[in-house]
Design a protein that fits this description.
Strand order of the largest sheet: 4-3-6-5
Number of domains: 2
Shape: globular
Oligomer: single chain
Distance between the termini: 38 Å
CATH architecture of the largest domain: Orthogonal Bundle
CATH class of the largest domain: Mainly Alpha
Order of helices and strands: HEEHHHHHHHEHHEHEEHE
Length: 312
């Protein structure tokens, strides 16, 4: 499982070391700065790191490239880096915030994929990955995700669009479902403490906002929404389906930590109507529309950016 995380780190650009020199051909004469975006420099060092990450995915294919093929690969990589920087700058402009805690939670979640702290440290050390560089990359990635989520959520979906989609897809939408909330903590000891507090105060929403590590649900009081069978982590789903509405589970261990699960409601497929799926359908349609509009949005960002790019 931890090998998978290293692959993810490579793909998302979280390696922070000087790679073997892949741009060393004399004919390339790579400058120290390979692109600028609104005054921000993209350096040769950053490009070389990215090229090494590309090579790590398929060394044999990469090494078989002739000079012209490598030039094209370098040009594509620079273009990708420019797009990433343009999106990041737009997130800054829109005042998108990713807190240190959110970055730390991502790191903690990644660590839990490793069998031990020692293996985690050794794997990072062997790959020469620094935590500082990983955090920087992760913050930028999360900012980009939040920006696109904001753009998607601003799209207007009409009632008729929702009704039409539901009518065409209600067979797949209407299935036995549960509405659940959860509180995610790091240890079983913490989970038991939260459960004891819940038994006294009976305010699950407040406890989720206070204790949950799940940054996507904690501000909503732990609300995960509706899920059909097979759509949740097996451990969470098994625990949730064993509850009656209003009941709260004992600590449930998963790869992310320990969950305290509250079953809010159960509904059989035969009982469901459009209103049960309105929010979900709206989200699906927003996502579809955003995928259609995204290229034009990105093109607009690029047109309005002052970009210079070196061509190998």
């Amino acid at each position: 499982m931890y090998i998978k995380w290293i692959i993810i780190l490579i793909i998302t650009g979280s390696l922070a070391y000087m790679a073997p020199v892949l741009l060393a051909e004399d004919s390339l004469q790579t400058p120290d700065v390979v692109a600028t975006v609104n005054g921000h420099n993209i350096t040769r060092e950053e490009l070389e790191r990215r090229m090494t990450q590309s090579r790590a995915m398929d060394p044999g294919r990469f090494d078989a490239m002739d000079l012209e093929q490598r030039k094209k690969a370098i040009a594509r990589t620079i273009s990708d880096m420019i797009v990433r920087e343009v999106i990041y700058q737009e997130a800054l402009k829109r005042k998108i915030v990713v807190t240190d805690r959110e970055v730390d939670l991502n790191l903690e979640g990644m660590k839990r994929q490793f069998p031990s702290e020692e293996v985690f440290k050794k794997t990072f050390a062997d790959a020469k990955i620094t935590i500082t560089a990983w955090k920087k990359e992760t913050r930028q990635n999360l900012m980009a995700i939040k920006l696109e989520d904001l753009m998607k959520d601003e799209l207007q979906i009409t009632n008729s669009e929702i009704a039409d989609y539901y009518e065409k897809n209600k067979t797949s939408l209407n299935k036995d479902s549960i509405n659940i909330s959860h509180i995610l903590v790091e240890t079983e000891k913490e989970a038991k403490k939260v459960i004891r507090e819940f038994k006294k105060k009976k305010d699950f929403e407040a406890l989720a906002k206070k204790y949950s590590l799940d940054t996507f649900t904690k501000d909503k009081g732990g609300d995960l929404g509706w899920y059909g069978k097979g759509e949740l982590l097996k451990e969470v789903e098994d625990a949730a389906y064993s509850l009656s509405p209003g009941q709260t589970s004992a600590p449930v261990k998963s790869q992310y930590g320990y969950h305290i699960i509250r079953l809010e409601e159960k509904k059989a497929a035969s009982e469901q109507t459009l209103e049960d799926h309105r929010e979900h359908v709206s989200s699906i349609l927003q996502q579809t529309k955003w995928q259609q509009l995204r290229p034009t949005w990105l093109q607009g960002l690029m047109i309005n950016a002052a970009v210079w790019k070196w061509s190998p």
